[in-house]
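Purpose: get a first structural picture of the assembly so the mutagenesis plan has something to point at.
Setup: two entries, given in the order below. No constraints added.
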Amino acid sequence: MFSFHKTPRLIASTCCGVLLASIPLVGAAEQTGRYGYGEPATDEQIAAWDIDIRPDGMGLPEGSGTVDEGMAIFETQCSSCHGSFGEGMGRYPKLAGGEGSLTEDRPEKTVGSFWPYASTLWDYIHRAMPFFAPQSLTDDQVYALTAYVLNLNYIVDGDFVANKETLPKVVMPNHDNFTWDDPRPVVNNDRCMKDCKEEATVSDSAAGKNLTPSTTGPLDEGITQ
Amino acid sequence: MLGKLRRLNQGVSKMALEESERLPSSERRRFLRSGLFTAGGAMVGGALAGIAPRALAATQYPPEIPSWTRTLGSGVVTDPYGVPSPFEKEVIRRNVPWLTADKISSISFTPLQHLKGIITPNGLFFERHHAGRPEIDPQQHRLMIHGLVERPIILSMEDLQRFPSVSQINFIECPANGGMEWRGAQLNSLQFLHGMVSCAEWTGVRLSTLLQEAGIKPEGKWLLAEGADGAAMTRSIPLEKALDDVIVAYAQNGEALRREQGYPIRLVVPGWEGNTHVKWLRRLEVGDKPWMQREETSKYTDLMPDGTAHGFTWVMEAKSVITSPCPEMPLTGNGIHQIEGLAWSGRGKVKAVDVSVDGGQNWQQAQLREPVMSKSLTRFSLEWKWDGTPALLQSRVIDETGYVQPTLTQLIEARGTNSIYHKNSIQTWQVNADGSVVNVQLS
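Result (structure tokens, whole complex):
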């Protein structure tokens, strides 16, 4: 009887001992905000991965490139998709043109007509282009391509040399047409329940437009509806 | 013949034979014969046993005894990782070939018409890649946190899993969902019209925990998240949101993230544009200003009729859609039908959903099905007696902020037809007398 009572008590005290020991540890992490996992990132590791460029030029590396140099690289590495003058082949994006089209029925949003910052061009070409071989270009090549695409859009002259001093000073034509505060909600619908409007009339129907791929059968490239 | 029988016999599973050892001999003979029937298939086994007529019956329902009741099924671990029944082979993600130049930077759509409840199965979660789906070795993958922090750190995937974990159910929607329909009704399919929304239970580490580990400097106001794919996709996120409910997720519906969803880790930014939920996450940088990346300037900004554009329109506003009936799921006859659908809001919980069967003249409040969670898909349903006459079905969600889902006309009045993104207007399904359902727009 005695030992029967004693055993649970022993277990209980062992269990509480464990609990007590672990509480300060959890508290320590909560207090300092640190678990101490992982390893410190070295300057060299950070420099190799930190590739983002900001409008104020933060992140731009040493190096430079001219419009002419850019034209030569563009012809071999970019024109197959974007066209020699950035006009866009097939459904690949246009990189030039479209000025004044933003209020039209079919706006053409390009580097020249739409992009608010030149830094974004350097950043994006460097991180993602050419499409089939991202992050394969040298910094000088990226400067040259940036200069060329800006020149295609009449934003810089043919003698422009892109580098970390000149690029942040380039003012994009559409820069002032962006707002960065979300104005929504901009629509105020009533929660009307009865007799909310006159009879509803259909203005457009997807029937018979032959744009919908099949949603049955195997995946295919065809449009069957 | 005997050789053939023996070969057939080998098809009877070992476990079934062991089971039969324990039966009385008469029972055992019967058991083995039925086993033979499984192994040999209906024709051979059936002919031998003289039960062909039954096996050949055209139907399997009463009064027939189904063939699957009189045979053994396949054993455990036939599919060590389970797959859906072959009868569900149509339930797949699909793409619109004419939409993008190739499948590398492209989109696939979730088959919402087939899904039940609110959770999207992992294999059916919609895809949006900018440079294809990378194959990442988690042993080699690292997350770097640096910038305006006290202690820049590099975390392995094991390190990440040591932090306290959280699980939350959140939808992810591409802001271009429905974006093909601004200028008119084009696509006649729920899947292609609205299938760029999916919902899962995400498990991972709170971003606030990780940022605390690195120690944000007082000047820190913004966060840049970057992917490890060929697009090295980036978005700037204000720290206020980053420290609120954002998580670095490593699991989706209980298992490791799918590669299409960012394996081994992705950001989950509840209620915000899908594009901010950076997949294949490799880097988080704290800064004092936004970076104005391509994905937040050239793309994911909303062009207004006057030629100006709205940037940083992160929140996915409330939206709902009827999933049954829909073009893929027509009505099958007069009588009582359950109109069903999905509703969600990036600003919080769904408060109510109303349904109209007359194109928005009159509305009835639908029932919300539990669970109703913040920034998650929510199911609604309404019983409807269809008399076989044409109808115009609509659903309208009201979220907990009081926001009422707008009509397309209202949305176009406010935003024009060029914004591509954030088309969250009421969907109209036209029900024809034959029960077929068509995507239409109302004037």
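The two ends of chain A are 82 Å apart (CA to CA).
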